[in-house]
């Protein structure tokens, strides 16, 4: 069965494009291939079923009837001579053949969108969408600031930003849900191309009128004199803190743990507690909303990399390529100033 699907996978690339049937005249050039709308619809149908896990839910989002969508799926499975989904009481799950088809379909859709963007750029139409998966720490100041500046120069470009842990961000690259991923403490992977790595130090986050701001330097032992509001174990910075606490003779007074940096910032704003975040996620140069941050001078605290990545072998749309270049310049500049 899988051999049959793999054969279809190879053949489908030639069937995906519709070429005009025209006798070429001397000196004429062949017309550019155009993605068949029928195949695009099939890709959308199968992808929607996989993401929702249900014929009914997928049909609602596609604005067709469940029976019509089920019929399209059955026709495709008959054509492939393969079952693409396992049907369970709790929903539908892709089979091995279904996963193979989904990978092919998502690759084809991504390539088609890139082609449309590049053609639009040739016509002088500056439009397109950049999709990014990123660590939570970047949502506070880095991405809002950079996206605002990028759109001032490129007002036709829109953005989709998905905030998630580093594992989910890398998976979003693999499933073509994201063009780029910017994640903290990501593990190397053979299918992921690392465009840039920037080492990140931890910074102390506190209220804008905190007593620690009055002293010239800041060490971890100074922070430990106050209550601590810590990121939980799902966030990368917690690993650095745990390693430091294990070596320290001081006992931290942890009064709050959370998987939300917004929660931690709101908590320290109204108290004398201290929290921690990587430097790219803080506004070190200024206080914002009653909260500020300072570098911690302890060398023993260690660093971890912030990684800008894309799926290896994937050709990015031009807007994503340009935004990646902007990110590289900004992050490299921040590293030089750190």
From TrEMBL:
Secretion signal, residue range per the UniProt entry: none
Pfam families given in the database record: HTH_1 (PF00126), LysR_substrate (PF03466)
Domain HTH lysR-type: 35-95
Domain of life (superkingdom): Bacteria
Listed PROSITE patterns: HTH_LYSR (PS50931)
UniProt xrefs under PANTHER family: HTH-TYPE TRANSCRIPTIONAL REGULATOR YBHD, NITROGEN ASSIMILATION TRANSCRIPTIONAL ACTIVATOR-RELATED
Family statement drawn from the similarity comment of this UniProt entry: Belongs to the LysR transcriptional regulatory family.
Descriptive protein name: LysR family transcriptional regulator
């Amino acid at each position: 069965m899988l051999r049959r699907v793999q054969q279809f996978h190879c053949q489908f690339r030639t069937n995906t494009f519709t070429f005009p049937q025209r006798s070429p005249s001397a000196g004429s050039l062949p017309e550019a291939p155009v993605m068949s709308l029928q195949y695009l619809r099939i890709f959308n149908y199968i992808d929607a079923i996989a993401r929702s896990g249900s014929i009914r839910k997928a049909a609602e989002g596609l604005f067709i009837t469940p029976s019509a969508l089920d019929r399209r799926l059955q026709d495709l499975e008959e054509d492939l001579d393969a079952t693409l989904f396992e049907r369970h009481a709790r929903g539908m799950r892709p089979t091995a053949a279904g996963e193979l088809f989904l990978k092919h379909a998502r690759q084809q859709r991504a390539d088609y969108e890139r082609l449309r963007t590049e053609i639009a750029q040739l016509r002088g139409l500056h439009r397109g969408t950049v999709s990014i998966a990123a660590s939570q720490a970047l949502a506070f100041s880095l991405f809002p600031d950079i996206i605002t500046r990028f759109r001032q120069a490129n007002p036709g470009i829109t953005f989709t930003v998905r905030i998630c842990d580093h594992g989910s961000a890398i998976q979003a690259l693999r499933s073509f849900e994201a063009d780029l991923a910017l994640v903290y403490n990501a593990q190397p992977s053979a299918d992921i191309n690392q465009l840039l790595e920037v080492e990140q130090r931890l910074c102390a986050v506190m209220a804008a009128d905190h007593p620690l701001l009055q002293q010239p330097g800041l060490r971890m032992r100074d922070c430990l004199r106050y209550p601590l509001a810590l990121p939980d174990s799902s966030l990368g910075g917690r690993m650095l803190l745990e390693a430091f606490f294990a070596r320290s003779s001081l006992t931290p007074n942890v009064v709050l743990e959370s998987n939300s940096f917004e929660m931690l910032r709101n908590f320290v704003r109204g108290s004398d507690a201290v929290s921690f975040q990587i430097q790219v996620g803080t506004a070190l140069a200024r206080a914002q909303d009653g909260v500020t941050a300072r570098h911690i001078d302890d060398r023993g605290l260690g660093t971890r990399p912030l990684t800008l990545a894309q799926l290896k072998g994937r050709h990015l749309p031009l807007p994503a390529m340009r935004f990646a270049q902007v990110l590289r310049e900004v992050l490299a500049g921040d590293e030089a100033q750190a």
